[in-house]
């Protein structure tokens, strides 16, 4: 008996499955018929639709590339940039505030360390007094300064001569 009841349930399930498959096929056929009807209906109106779309695109192109429109958009961009920069300069700059605070803390720490430096003993001061002063090789000598000043004077004279010849011509 169990075997017959299982077979009958299986047959009922198969019939339900076939019925759902048939409904799905009918639905696809109906969709195909609707798509064909829409295409045939729109084919008579397609030239008019393309003509209107082309005219719209041309008018939009003329409007966007008009100098006045470009002028207005450019000025709007400048105004937005100015407003944003004013907002950032008003103290609401969230990016630089932590850096400023860290810099202040660093300055306080350095100044505290400088005040805690021990003073030199008299023996160390004597060592510093005995040291000689060494002149670096990169120092500018008086002869070099004289050479530079003469070169500047000669260049000034040449410029004045050039200006005279230029005004005479």
TrEMBL record:
The chain crosses the membrane at residues 64-84. Keywords: Membrane, Transmembrane, Transmembrane helix. PANTHER family: DUF4408 DOMAIN-CONTAINING PROTEIN, TRANSMEMBRANE PROTEIN. This is Uncharacterized protein. It comes from Actinidia rufa.
